[in-house]
């Protein structure tokens, strides 16, 4: 980041704005996917940025963040802490079920492992978006979210400010979350899931059914 300028005309709803170079000249387009700082960008803040080109060869900010005092004052987006709290509550619940013998360690390990993979995939996709490189397919991200990776994806979305403003993506994401939780509930209590519980190593002497029904 060897350029300095002022972030102007920032539209937070659409996630883009323009940077006016410190020494004057044509404004440079800046997109939220290229923001490398904390929180959300705000207009009329000094920034440092690099120069890149989009697919059409037009100049844009390859990566930008606040500079000086603005950088120090930036904080993590509130949505990150909400997401972190939700995920922490979810894993605490799973750990409690494990401790009581209602859940095998394999299920907790699956959520933890796939969530870590999902988190890393979001980071890789965000880096690719900033460089204009090949992206990870959205269907691939959704597949990992559905297969127990949604906790990691939820935290990654807020930590990297990635995929949070795309309504169609969020709709499918939350559909994947609900589908996964529904499948987990079915696995834990449904009589029809007995064979699956046996394969996964559930303690069949204990069951959540008396607590639910």
From TrEMBL:
SMART domains: CSP
GO BP term (any one): regulation of mRNA stability
One term of GO molecular function: mRNA 3'-UTR binding
One GO CC term, this protein: cytosol
Keywords (A to Z) from UniProt: Membrane, Phosphoprotein, Transmembrane, Transmembrane helix
Predominant localisation class: cytoplasm
Location of this chain's protein in the cell: Cytoplasm
Stretches assigned to the CSD domain: 2-74
Pfam family, any one: DUF1294
Segments traversing the membrane: 80-99, 105-124, 171-189
UniProt-listed InterPro entries: Ca-reg_mRNA-binding_domain (IPR052069), CSD (IPR011129), CSD_CS (IPR019844), CSP_DNA-bd (IPR002059), DUF1294 (IPR010718), NA-bd_OB-fold (IPR012340)
Protein name: CSD domain-containing protein
Species assigned in the record: Marinobacter guineae
């Amino acid at each position: 980041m060897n350029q300095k300028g002022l972030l102007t005309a920032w539209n937070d709803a659409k996630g883009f704005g323009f940077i006016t170079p410190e020494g004057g000249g044509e404004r440079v387009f800046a997109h939220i996917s290229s923001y490398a700082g904390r929180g959300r960008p705000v207009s009329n803040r000094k920034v440092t940025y690099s120069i890149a080109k989009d697919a059409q060869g037009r100049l844009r900010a390859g990566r930008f963040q606040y500079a000086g005092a603005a950088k120090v004052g930036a904080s993590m987006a509130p949505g990150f802490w909400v997401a972190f709290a939700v995920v922490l509550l979810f894993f605490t619940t799973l750990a409690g079920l494990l401790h009581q013998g209602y859940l095998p360690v394999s299920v907790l390990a699956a959520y933890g492992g796939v969530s870590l993979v999902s988190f890393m995939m979001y980071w890789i996709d965000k880096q690719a978006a900033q460089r204009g490189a090949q992206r990870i397919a959205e269907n691939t991200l959704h597949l990992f979210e559905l297969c127990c990776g949604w906790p990691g994806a939820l935290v990654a979305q807020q930590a990297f400010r990635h995929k949070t403003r795309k309504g169609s993506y969020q709709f499918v994401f939350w559909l994947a979350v609900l589908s996964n939780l529904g499948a987990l509930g079915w696995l834990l209590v449904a009589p029809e899931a007995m064979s699956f519980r046996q394969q996964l190593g559930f303690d069949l002497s204990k069951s959540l059914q008396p607590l639910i029904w």
